[in-house]
Design brief:
The complex is a heterodimer of chains A (788) and B (278). Chain A has 788 residues and is mainly β. Helices cover 8% and strands 56% of the residues of chain A. Chain B has 278 residues and is mainly beta. Chain B has helices spanning 3-16, 228-243; strands at 26-29, 40-46, 50-58, 60-61, 75-80, 86-95, 100-110, 117-123, 129-135, 142-149, 159-166, 174-181, 191-196, 204-208, 218-226, 258-259, 261-267, 270-276. In chain B, β8 (117-123) and β9 (129-135) form a beta hairpin. The chains are: A mainly beta (788), B mainly beta (278). Chain A: This is TonB-dependent receptor domain-containing protein.
C-alpha cells in the first residue's frame, strides 16, 4: 500500500462520486455557507492560545468567557479560542481544570490576538478537580452537546486501580451508560453497543484493538495521555464509521520549557517518560514507554520447578508499548504534531519439543498540520496510518503452522472550523481511508514438502466521509447544532453510500435548567468477526462487501441538565438506539482457515434503550460523582436462538457507580469507588445426555443449551480504596499511590460452569454441581511515581 | 492449547506471584434450571457384517440424579434401501469389552456397500418420533504411518506420529482419526481428531500429533470416512462440551444427524493399521 492508493481513493471520491453524493454535498453547502457570510461584520474577535505556564502545553477544552455573562467558548483541540464580541471593554475570564483562573480586562476595538499561560494549582486534588466550576457547569448547561464524558489522565491517576495500573478506559467505565465486558476488563460497551462499535482515536489515528492482556488493560499509557473525550451519542458530524461511541484520546505534547523525566514502578509494570523542548517555547517532544515484568517471575518459577514432573510450566506473557509525540510551532499560524504508538503483547509457550508463539498489537502514526487562515478560520489536516495484526506460530520438528490476520489503514482528512459570528460556528471537512485486510492467512508447511496448506483472503476497501455542521446560537436560551455527513465505502465494485443526519438542540428554561435532545445516524463499514462473545485478539476485521452490508444505527436522546447551588450538576438522559444489519456468526462457525468466511455470517438487529442519571460535585474538599443507568440491550437474529430475541451478555439492568475524592491534606488525597451492576447475561446448559461414542472411545456428558444468555450471573459489586501520598524528594516530585482493589473481598462471578462429580476409584458419575469462578480477591498494591 | 484456561492460570500467577492461586476463587453455587421435556437420544452405528445395535435413552435435567434412562416401549426399525424394515428388539445388551450399553438389538448381520441407504425410525408410547438416514461411503485407505523421536535421552524419548492418506477430489470429505495404545488402562483413545478436506481437496492429507508416544508402544490407528452430518454432530458435541467452562465461548446447538431428538445414526467405515513404535 502506498500514498498513491489514498490519492487515487481521494480522486475517486472527488470525481467519481455518484449523483446522489454530488447532490447531497451541494445541498449541504448551500444550506450552511450562506449563513457564514451573512453576519460577520459588526463584530471583532478575541483569539489566541491558552497554555500551561509550567510546561507550555496547549490547554484543550479550557473555558474563555465574559465574566458575569453566559457568553463564552472553549479552546479547541489546539488550545485555540476565538470569542466574537461587539467592540467594547470586557472582563475576560480564562479557566481550566487544575489551573488558577485568570481574569483580564480587555478593550476590544479591532481583532485581537491574546496568547496566555495559566498557572497550575498546587494542591493534589485541586490540581485536577477544582476549576472554574461555575464556568464548566455553565458550558454544560449552554451547549447542545450531550452524551459526552471527559476525563483527564491526572484525574484517573487519583483513583484506585487493579494492580495499581492506572487505566483511563476503566475509569471511564465509572460513568453512566458505559459498561465493561466483565471483571477487570477494559472493554467498552456503550449504550448497548458492541465492543467493535467504538471509534477509538489516538491523536486522530484509529486504534483497532485498544487493549492489552485479553482486555485487562488498555493500550493507553496514563503518563503519555492527556485526556479523553467519549461520545455516547449526539455525535458531531466530523466523526463517523462506528455505531456506538467515539473515544477521542489525546496525547500530551511534552514540556516546551524544560526537560522532565517521569515514571512509575508498579506491582506488575513500570513506566518511563522523557519530555522536553526541542526548541524552547517553540517545539517539544514526549517519549513514553512501559512494560510488564510478570514474565520474569513466571520464568523463575518454571526454572525452579523444572525437575518436578507434575508441574505444568506457566506460559510466558508480557506486553510493552511506546508513545512518542513531537509538536512544532512552524509560525504564528502553523503548527505541526507528529504522534506515534507501537505496542505488542506476547504469549509464548515453549519447551524443547513444542514452540507456540502468539503476538498481537497496534501500530499507529499520525501527522497533523494546523493552519490558521484567520482568527476565525482554521484547518486541521491529518495524515494517519493504523495497523493491527496478530500472529500465531507453532513449530513441531519439521512442521510449522502460522495464522495471521491484519488490517492496515491510511487516512487523509481535513477538518475546517469557521466561526462566522457568535451565533454560528461552522465545521466542515472530508476524510478518505484506504483499508487493507488480510483475513485468516493460514500456512502449514513441513521442511520435507509433505505438508503445504494455505488459506486466507486479502481485501481492500475505500471509506469516505464528507460533512458539514453548524452550531447555531439562535438566542441566549436556544441553541441548535445540525449537520450532515455523507459517508461511503467501496469494495469489490460495490459502492455503499450513507446519509447521516445529525441534530442536537438545547433550550435553557432558566439560568440553571436546560432541556436537550438529539438525533444521530451512524454507518459502520468494517466489522469485527468474533466467535467468543467477548473481544479477543484473534477477532478478525472484515469489510463491507456485496454479501455484508454496512451496519447502521439511529439514536435518539433527550435529557435535562440542572445546576444546583453552583456546586452540584444533575443530568439525566433517556436514549433509544436501533441497530440494523448487525453481524454475528452461525453456531459452530469456523473462522480460522476458512476461505468462505461470509458463509458463516448471520445478520440481525439490535435494540438498546435506557436512562442515565448523573450527579457531580466538583467544589470543596470532598468531590466526586454518582452515576446510575437503567438499561436494556437485545439482539434478534432469524438464524440464532430460533429467531427469538436474546439479551446481550453486557445487558445490565442496573449499573451504579459512586466515586468520592477527599482532600485530606496538602500531601494526602484519598479516593473510593463503589460499583454495582446486574450480573451479566449468560448461557448455561439446562439438560444433558450421555454420549457413548464408537467402540474404543469413552462416554461423555454432553450439555444442551436451549437459549442464548437466558441466565444471569450474580450481581457484581466492589469497593476500592486509593490513597496518594506526596513525597518530598530533594529534586522533582514523587508520590506513593496505594490501591486496594475489592476491599471487602467479594467473590464476583467471572463465569459459571457445571462440574461432573465422579467416584475416585471407579470413575462413576455421582452427581453434577454448578461452580462459580471469580478472578480477583482483595488486591492491595503500591506504585511509586516520580518526576524530575 | 486451551488459551482461555492457560490465560487464567497465568493471570492468577501474574497477580501476586502465584499467591492468588491458593485463594479459593471457585465456589459451589445453586442454579435453578427450568424443567424442559426430555428428548430422545439415539446412537446407532452400522458396521458391515455385524449385528444391528442401538442405544436409546433420553436427555435429563442437568442436575437430575445420574441414573440410566431407558425408554420403554419404543419401536425401532432400520430399513436398507427399499428392503423390508428390520425390527430391533427391545433388549439390554452390555458390551463389556468396550463398555457400551445397547437397548435395541437384531442379531442379523448387516451387509453394507458404498451407496446403500439406511433409514431409522423410532416411535414410542408417548407419540415421539425420531428419524434418521445415512448413506454408506467408500472406505479410505491409510497410505502410510510414520513416527519420529525427539532429541531427549533414549530412555525418556517420545515420538510424534504422522498418518497420511489420499483425499478424493471429486467430493467433500470428512474424516475421524482414532489412535489407541495397547495395554493402557481404560478404553479411551490416545488421539481423536476430526479432519475435513476444505484446504486439502484432492491432496495427500498428513496428520501429525505432538510428541506423546513411547518406544515399543503398540498403536492401533483407525481412519473413519464420515458423512458431513456425522462430522458436524461430533464437532458440535465437542464444541458444546468445551463451552461449559470457557468464559469466552458461545453456547452451541447440537447438530444431530437425526430428526426428533439428539444423536447419531450412521455407518462406520474405517481402515485399521497397527504399528509398534521402535
Amino acid at each position: 500500500m502506498t500514498f498513491s492508493s489514498v490519492y487515487n481513493s481521494a480522486r475517486h471520491f472527488l470525481f467519481q462520486w455518484p449523483m446522489l453524493g454530488q447532490r447531497a454535498v451541494f445541498f449541504l453547502f448551500c444550506l450552511l455557507l450562506p449563513i457564514s457570510f451573512s453576519q460577520a461584520q459588526e463584530r471583532v474577535s478575541l483569539n489566541g492560545t491558552l497554555r500551561s505556564a509550567a510546561t507550555g502545553e496547549a490547554l484543550i477544552g479550557a473555558s474563555v468567557s465574559v465574566a458575569g455573562t453566559t457568553t463564552g467558548v472553549e479552546t479547541n483541540t489546539n488550545g485555540v479560542y476565538t470569542l466574537s464580541l461587539a467592540p467594547g471593554t470586557y472582563q475576560i475570564q480564562f479557566s481550566y481544570i487544575g489551573f488558577k483562573t485568570l481574569t483580564r480586562e480587555i478593550a476590544l476595538t479591532t481583532n485581537t490576538r491574546l496568547n496566555l499561560e495559566l498557572e497550575e494549582n498546587t494542591s493534589q486534588l485541586s490540581e485536577v478537580l477544582v476549576e472554574a466550576e461555575r464556568n464548566t457547569f455553565q458550558e454544560r448547561l449552554s451547549t447542545p452537546q450531550m452524551s459526552m464524558e471527559t476525563l483527564s489522565s491526572r484525574e484517573a491517576k487519583l483513583l484506585p486501580a487493579l494492580f495499581g495500573e492506572v487505566d483511563i478506559i476503566k475509569t471511564l467505565q465509572l460513568k453512566p451508560g458505559i459498561q465493561s465486558g466483565g471483571e477487570g476488563s477494559s472493554g467498552l460497551f456503550v449504550r448497548g453497543g458492541s465492543s467493535d462499535q467504538n471509534l477509538v482515536l489516538l491523536d486522530d489515528a484509529l486504534v483497532y484493538n485498544p487493549s492489552h492482556l485479553f482486555g485487562f488493560f488498555s493500550v493507553f499509557n496514563p503518563d503519555a495521555v492527556r485526556g479523553v473525550e467519549l461520545y455516547k451519542g449526539g455525535f458531531p458530524a466530523q466523526f463517523g464509521g462506528r455505531l456506538s461511541s467515539v473515544l477521542d484520546v489525546k496525547l500530551r505534547e511534552g514540556n516546551r520549557k524544560e526537560y522532565d523525566v517521569t515514571g512509575g514502578l508498579g506491582l506488575i509494570a513500570s513506566r518511563l517518560s522523557v519530555e522536553g523542548p526541542i526548541q524552547k517555547d517553540k517545539s517539544s517532544f514526549l517519549v513514553s514507554g512501559r512494560r510488564t515484568y510478570v514474565d520474569v517471575f513466571t520464568r523463575m518459577i518454571n526454572k525452579a520447578k523444572e525437575s518436578d514432573p507434575d508441574f505444568s510450566p506457566i506460559p510466558d506473557y508480557y506486553f510493552y508499548d511506546f508513545n512518542a509525540k513531537a509538536s512544532f510551532e512552524l509560525g504564528p499560524n502553523d503548527r505541526l504534531f507528529i504522534s506515534g504508538y507501537y505496542g505488542r503483547d506476547f504469549f509464548t509457550f515453549k519447551d524443547e519439543d513444542f514452540n507456540f508463539n502468539f503476538n498481537w498489537g497496534n501500530r499507529v502514526a499520525s501527522a497533523r498540520w494546523v493552519h490558521q487562515f484567520s482568527p476565525r478560520f482554521f484547518v486541521n489536516t491529518t495524515f494517519s496510518s493504523s495497523n493491527y495484526e496478530y500472529a500465531i506460530k507453532n513449530q513441531l520438528d519439521i512442521y510449522s503452522f502460522s495464522l495471521t490476520s491484519n488490517i492496515t489503514d491510511l487516512t487523509l482528512k481535513s477538518d475546517f472550523e469557521y466561526i462566522t459570528s457568535e451565533k454560528h460556528h461552522l465545521r466542515f471537512g472530508l476524510a478518505v481511508t484506504d483499508h487493507r485486510f488480510v483475513v485468516g492467512r493460514l500456512e502449514a508447511n513441513s521442511q520435507d514438502g509433505s505438508v503445504n496448506v494455505g488459506a486466507g483472503n486479502e481485501y481492500s476497501g475505500q471509506e469516505y466521509g464528507l460533512y458539514a455542521s453548524d452550531d447555531w446560537t439562535f438566542s441566549p436560551a436556544f441553541t441548535l447544532s445540525y449537520g450532515l455527513r455523507l459517508s461511503g465505502f467501496l469494495n469489490d465494485g460495490k459502492n455503499f453510500l450513507g446519509l447521516e443526519p445529525r441534530a442536537a438542540a438545547s433550550y435553557r428554561f432558566t439560568e440553571t435548567l436546560t432541556l436537550k435532545a438529539n438525533f444521530t445516524r451512524m454507518f459502520q463499514y468494517v466489522h469485527l468477526v468474533s466467535n467468543t462473545g467477548a473481544s479477543l485478539p484473534t477477532d478478525i476485521w472484515y469489510p463491507s462487501s456485496p454479501g455484508v452490508r454496512p451496519q447502521r444505527s439511529d439514536q435518539f436522546t433527550v435529557g435535562l441538565t440542572k445546576l444546583h447551588k453552583d456546586k452540584y450538576l444533575f443530568s439525566t438522559e433517556a436514549y433509544y438506539k436501533k441497530m440494523n444489519r448487525q453481524l454475528d456468526l452461525k453456531d459452530g462457525a469456523q473462522i480460522f482457515g476458512n476461505n468462505a468466511l461470509e458463509e458463516e455470517f448471520v445478520f440481525g438487529t439490535g435494540d438498546s434503550y435506557g436512562q442515565e442519571f448523573y450527579v457531580e460535585k466538583k467544589e470543596g474538599k470532598t468531590t466526586g460523582w454518582i452515576g446510575y443507568t437503567l438499561s436494556w440491550s437485545t439482539r434478534t437474529f432469524p438464524d440464532l436462538n430460533n429467531g427469538k430475541t436474546f439479551p446481550t451478555r453486557f445487558d445490565r439492568r442496573h449499573d451504579l457507580s459512586v466515586v468520592a475524592l477527599q482532600e485530606v491534606s496538602k500531601r494526602i488525597s484519598a479516593t473510593a469507588t463503589f460499583v454495582y451492576g446486574t450480573g451479566n447475561a449468560y448461557s448455561l446448559p439446562v439438560q444433558r445426555f450421555v454420549f457413548q461414542d464408537v467402540p474404543g472411545e469413552d462416554y461423555t456428558v454432553i450439555p444442551v443449551y436451549p437459549e442464548r444468555n437466558s441466565f444471569r450471573l450474580a450481581a457484581y459489586h466492589r469497593l476500592d480504596f486509593g490513597l496518594v501520598y506526596k513525597l518530598r524528594p530533594k529534586r522533582g516530585a514523587a508520590d506513593l499511590t496505594f490501591s486496594v482493589y475489592n476491599v471487602y473481598n467479594r467473590r464476583n462471578p467471572y463465569f459459571v460452569y457445571f462440574e461432573t462429580l465422579k467416584e475416585d476409584d471407579s470413575d462413576q458419575i455421582t452427581g453434577f454441581v454448578a461452580k462459580q469462578v471469580s478472578l480477583f480477591p482483595v488486591i492491595p498494591s503500591v506504585t511509586y511515581n516520580f518526576k524530575f | 492449547m486451551d488459551v482461555a484456561f492457560s490465560f487464567r492460570s497465568m493471570l492468577l500467577c501474574l497477580a501476586l506471584g502465584g499467591a492468588l492461586a491458593s485463594c479459593d476463587m471457585e465456589q459451589e453455587i445453586e442454579v435453578k434450571l427450568p424443567k424442559l421435556p426430555p428428548q430422545l437420544v439415539v446412537e446407532c452405528y452400522l458396521v458391515n457384517n455385524e449385528p444391528m445395535k442401538l442405544a436409546l435413552s433420553e436427555s435429563a435435567g442437568y442436575f437430575d440424579a445420574p441414573e440410566a434412562i431407558i425408554v420403554k416401549g419404543a419401536t425401532v426399525t432400520i430399513t436398507k434401501n427399499n428392503e423390508a424394515p428390520v425390527v430391533l428388539r427391545d433388549t439390554v445388551l452390555v458390551d463389556q469389552e468396550n463398555q457400551k450399553v445397547y437397548t435395541h438389538y437384531n442379531r442379523r448381520r448387516v451387509r453394507t456397500a458404498p451407496g446403500d441407504v439406511f433409514k431409522l425410525l423410532i416411535t414410542d408410547t408417548q407419540g415421539r418420533r425420531l428419524t434418521g438416514t445415512t448413506t454408506v461411503l467408500p472406505p479410505v485407505p491409510i497410505d502410510s504411518v510414520g513416527w519420529k523421536f525427539n532429541s531427549k535421552p533414549e530412555q525418556s524419548q517420545e515420538a510424534y506420529l504422522l498418518v497420511r492418506w489420499q483425499d478424493d477430489a471429486a467430493s467433500k470429505n470428512f474424516y475421524r482419526l482414532l489412535v489407541h495404545k495397547a495395554d493402557t488402562s481404560g478404553i479411551d483413545s490416545q488421539l481423536d481428531a476430526e479432519v475435513d478436506d476444505q484446504l486439502r481437496n484432492g491432496k495427500k492429507i498428513t496428520y501429525t500429533t505432538t510428541y506423546r508416544f513411547q518406544r515399543n508402544d503398540t498403536l492401533t490407528i483407525k481412519l473413519f470416512h464420515l458423512d458431513e452430518s456425522y462430522y458436524e454432530f461430533i464437532s458440535s458435541i465437542e464444541d458444546a462440551r468445551r463451552a461449559n467452562g470457557n468464559p469466552f465461548a458461545q453456547p452451541v446447538t447440537i447438530k444431530s444427524t437425526v430428526a426428533g431428538g439428539f444423536g447419531v445414526f450412521t455407518h462406520l467405515n474405517f481402515q485399521t493399521k497397527e504399528v509398534i513404535i521402535k
